[in-house]
Specification:
The complex is a heterodimer of chains A (about 290) and B (about 290). Chain A is α/β, with parallel strands linked by helices and about 290 residues long. Chain A is about 40% helix and about 20% strand. Chain A has two domains: about 5-245, Rossmann fold (3-Layer(aba) Sandwich), CATH 3.40.50; about 250-290, no CATH class. Chain A contains eleven helices and ten strands. In chain A, helix 3 packs across helix 4, helix 3 (about 105-115) packs parallel to helix 5 and helix 4 (about 120-135) packs across helix 5 (about 150-160). Chain A is globular, with a radius of gyration of 21 Å. The longest helix of chain B has 17 residues, at about 180-195. In chain B, helix 3 (about 105-120) runs parallel beside helix 5 (about 150-165). By secondary structure, chain B is an alpha/beta fold. Chain B has helices at about 55, 85-90, 105-120, 120-135, 150-165, 180-195, 210, 230-235, 240-245, 250-260, 275-285; strands spanning about 10-20, 25-40, 40-45, 70-75, 75, 90-95, 170-175, 200-205, 215-220, 225-230. Classes of the chains: A alpha/beta (about 290), B alpha/beta (about 290). The interface between A and B is large, with 44 and 41 residues.
């Protein structure tokens, strides 16, 4: 059964500083359908338009032309309550820890649910649940967010968005600036959240390794245009094109593409060390069997 | 250490540092670091968040002073306050966030900022600013406003501001953490060029192992101690140890390490995709693996 698109854009275009000498189309003619429950990696180098694109999904930016439909609803149609759209599509910005403002962690996480008009009980249960999802222990909830470490603050900010239980969760570089252990921890939480809730996730990242390990589909932006939207395998198979637009592919993938070029019968759609190990061991075993 | 004979440009002896807070709590971040950095070296210091690597970096130009042991820059004891300016003129620092380091509204004025404060004659300033902007590949942007630049370009302007002072050494504290892959490449290539052409000693603090791989030497810090110290190739062969302290190794190195655990005999000092392909091709060839066609 084909899934309904939760996000749909039609010929979306956004122009900065229109009518001035600095006029520039940040996104141009972007038409896409993203299915419910998909985990989409969004890639493209700085200035490609990927951040501008995701800011359209909850109505933060108004298209210069074209339409944005969330769950079939044109969000800029007359009479649409865009606040409700923002509860449905949660956006976590880059370096969200700079956006904390309340005097306790609990209040900060509860800000969104409170605006939704939920009961106190429901707010509290959502705060606890969101805190647990991001791995914040309960004793931190009464602390000031400003007493926490950078990594903890970032989790508070993410919890504040997921406490609204959005159908779509958009995260712009949630692991930027964290060390490898911190990165993995945040990404694992997001993965678990996706699995538990079945929400649609859009993960903007510069790290192809992170995208390869988490996403099911990849959306590639370049110079304001949508250039690819396909499965991880199909996108990474176009490695030359990715390189030509200033992007990279995981080192492990380059190793397997290289082996295949040298004539070895190995799968070159390998994105993780774990799969790479399996593939080499398989090739060795079958080779030993006298092929 | 092999460069023992060269007078080190930076040196620490049993360096300790403890942060003390008002409420009487203290936190010992460096536990007796002994390090000598020979002049002209490109050293990468790798460690996870909270390992003490930035605290160590701040001792190289007297931003922090040791609470135990000694730190020397160009042979000068950093706790000698009468020499602080000599140290800072010769050991420049670049920080993580480019937006926090740019003070002027025009690129070339920003690069000239320190020189003006030092009272350098105007013609000399003009010459040094042009040289510095050329060295980082930002000369054509000299009349731009900083907000018109990308993150990588801003970091290069920050580096130009440092090299205009003609330092012997530049310490960069996670200069690429906030940049995209292209910006990271620009900054790393600029650093390598300054090291190679201008013979400037480089200390690069990072947790990106692909940057550390390009250094002459890698020092790994954990819990305020030096854990590993050597050429990138030998440091990154310690896959299990690096992973256990929350650092990454190149995927190529990890793959070969994992295969060795499964009983295959593969070299462990591999860093690049090409080297990994060579090693695996040899292995597959030897076991007569199936070829395409």
């Amino acid at each position: 059964m084909p899934k309904d698109p939760i996000i749909k854009t039609e010929h979306l275009r956004y122009v900065y500083s229109e009518g001035t000498p600095f006029e520039k189309a940040a996104i141009d003619d972007v038409s896409i359908e993203i299915e419910k429950g998909e985990f989409v990696g969004v890639i493209g180098h700085t200035g490609s338009g990927k951040s501008t694109f995701v800011q359209h999904l909850n109505g933060l930016l108004k298209p210069t032309s074209g339409r944005v439909l969330i769950d079939g609803q044109d969000i800029w149609e007359k009479g649409v309550d865009r606040r409700k759209i923002r509860f449905k599509v949660g956006l976590v910005f880059q370096y969200p820890e700079y956006q904390l403002f309340e005097d306790t962690v609990f209040k900060d996480i509860s800000y969104g649910p409170r605006n939704m008009g939920l009961s106190e009980d429901e707010i509290a249960s959502r705060v606890y649940e969101a805190a647990e999802f991001v791995g914040l222990s309960e004793d931190l909830l009464e602390k000031s967010p400003f007493e926490l470490s950078g990594g903890q603050k970032r989790r508070v900010a993410i919890a504040g968005v997921i406490a609204m239980q959005p159908d779509v969760l958009v995260l712009d570089e949630p692991a930027a600036g964290l060390d490898p252990k911190g990165r993995e921890s945040i990404l694992r939480r997001i993965r678990e959240y996706h699995k538990a809730r079945g929400s649609t996730i859009l993960l903007v990242s510069h790290s192809m390794e992170d995208i390869a390990e988490n996403a099911s589909k990849v959306l590639v932006m370049n110079k304001a245009k949508l250039v690819m939207y396909d499965s991880v395998d199909a996108v990474f198979a176009r490695s030359q094109e990715l390189l030509s637009i200033g992007l990279d592919i995981p080192q492990i993938t380059r190793v397997f593409i290289g082996l295949r070029k040298r004539g070895f019968d190995v799968n070159d759609c390998i994105y993780t060390v774990k799969d790479g190990k399996k593939e080499i061991l398989r090739a060795l075993k079958e080779g030993g069997a006298g092929c | 250490m092999e460069n023992e004979s060269i007078n080190p440009i930076l040196e620490t002896q049993n360096l300790e540092f403890t942060y003390s807070y008002e409420d009487g709590i203290s936190n010992k971040v460096l536990n007796g670091i002994n390090l000598k950095v020979p002049s002209g070296q490109f050293l990468a210091i790798l460690g996870r968040n909270g390992s003490g690597k930035s605290t160590l970096a701040k001792h190289f130009n007297a931003v922090l002073l040791p609470t135990g042991g000694k730190a020397y820059a160009l042979g000068i004891d950093t706790s000698d306050e009468t020499r602080t300016y000599d140290i800072r003129q010769n050991v420049g620092m670049v920080f993580q966030n480019p937006d926090n380091q740019i003070v002027a509204t025009i690129v070339e004025e920003d690069v000239a900022f320190a020189l003006e404060n030092l009272g350098v004659p105007p013609e000399e300033i003009r010459r040094r600013v042009d040289e510095a902007l050329n060295a980082v590949g930002m000369y054509e942007y000299r009349n731009h406003a900083p907000h018109q630049l990308s993150g990588g370009q801003k970091q290069r302007v920050a580096i130009a501001g440092i090299i205009a002072m003609k330092p012997k050494c530049i310490v960069l504290d996670e200069p690429t953490a906030m940049l995209d892959p292209r910006g990271r490449r620009e900054v790393i290539e600029t650093i390598m060029k300054l090291n190679r052409d201008e013979k400037i000693t480089i200390v690069l603090i990072t947790h990106f192992m692909d940057e550390a791989v390009r250094a002459d030497r890698v020092v790994v810090i954990d819990h305020g101690n030096i854990l590993l110290d050597g050429a990138p190739r030998s440091v990154f062969s310690n896959v299990a140890m690096l992973k256990s302290i929350g650092l990454d190794v190149p995927q190529a190195a990890e793959l070969l390490y994992e295969l060795n655990k499964s009983g295959e005999k593969l070299p462990q000092d591999v860093l690049t995709a090409e080297e990994c392909i060579d090693a695996l091709a040899t292995l597959l060839e030897e076991s007569h693996c199936r070829k395409i066609r």
